[in-house]
Amino acid sequence: MYTKVCLQLCLTEVANGLRNPVLMAHANDNTHRMFVAEQVGIIWVYLPDGSRLEEPFLDIKKIVLATPWVGDERGFLGMAFHPQYKHNGKFYIYYSYVDKKKLEKIRISELKVSASDINKADPHSERNILEIEEPAANHNGGQVLFGLDGYMYLFTGDGGKAGDPFGKFGNAQNKSVLLGKVLRIDVDGKSPDGKPYRIPLDNPFVSDTKALPEVYAYGVRNMWRCSVDRGDPVTHKGRGRIFCGDVGQNRFEEIDIIVKGGNYGWRAKEGFECYDIKLCHNSSLDDILPIFAYGHSVGKSVTGGYMYRGCESPNLNGLYIFGDFMSGRLIALQEDERTHKWKKQDICIGSTKACAFPGLISSYSKFIISFAEDEAGELYFMATSYPSAYAPHGSIYKFVDPARRAPPGKCKHKPVPVKVKSKRIPFAPLTSKFAQREWALLGPLTPPPRSLVNSVVQKPLFQLGVKIWQGIPRRPRPGQFKRRRSACGATVRRAPKGVTRKGAPLCARP
Ligand SMILES: [Ca+2]
Ligand SMILES: [Ca+2]
Known about the structure:
The chain is mainly β.
């Protein structure tokens, strides 16, 4: 089941200086622009030449509830363009806010692009789609996407705290609440009862009087990042599947494929194992198991990724690439055509030899927040060295497979030019980034130069004194890194005193 050899990949940094970049999305309008959202509530536009527009696409940080506390899960969390965005200019956002009665909620709303500037949203066009009250600060879900059926899918968290404590058997197993669910709605219609959306007629629980008709799947803890598979470029196999990473409680992180009406097990199960013994042994629990789960020795907070279907790295086709927020590990899954089991392969970034080309880097910031796909299908991830919504230490990296590139000219695309009114800010790798790379190449045992301490070395994360959820990074305990196995099977020796392995390549020194 496990392959010992790791998959060597390289990276190019495409953006930096971002405050907890939670997503990057394209509008599917042939402009090949990328829209990058920060947790504080700002969306930036990046042009195909790598430059960023000085004026944001949208700035709603005044309405969004976000704090500088490390690990705070509230904020601007999701965005998706309408499948017909090119024609109707509509897009959807998902964020935390506090209402007039001081209740914390998540809100999903629709906005439109400005009539006068293609690179700006019209902030006055906001139309409320759905609001859900949040009983605790953590587990707010945040993914919004459109399936190939044209419907909107929303991924809510179980509400928060630990062990899904709300109600008789938690929120996730309770189909009469919207928390702990995958919801499916039609934003192009209205309900007879006045809701600003329609319920698709084939939603699985429309005739179940004990269930809300929006529910598409349940038993979800806190799915953090889901994506739609574009399918094999030739056979289209796999097209339309929705993959999600569901963050675990104390023991397991999992990857799921979402099916209509599916029960994803939480809080009866965590990964493949029982969490609530009583619910787990209930004979009516007809749950769908993950395609893959891993224990907390590997990572403590899964970040769901994408199935690679791009053009530039043909060997990656059919690999589902995801990561772990806490450990910084990157992992690929591949389905065995015969057995339909998913095989894991660890990804190594940072082979100095394989990545020794101009523009390629072999280190990255450790906290992996999100993954993204550009209009052409190439894959990226967003990570930061300091996970506070106010700290501008987030970067975006593109995956590059050094083993096999597409033939020259094969992956060329012609972006439709866009009229730009705002100033363009060209991409500049931070000078310290180069130094960071140099340091990282030396391996985790070399203390970084003083000038890098802010960007590379984890500050005491408890200085703010707030612990939002159980998995907040800590300073390493003495000996914590002693004799631990790295992703490549190499023994990682003890980190120098006070220095964590952040920014260090996971497999640079096998
Ligand atoms: Ca919550
Ligand atoms: Ca599950």
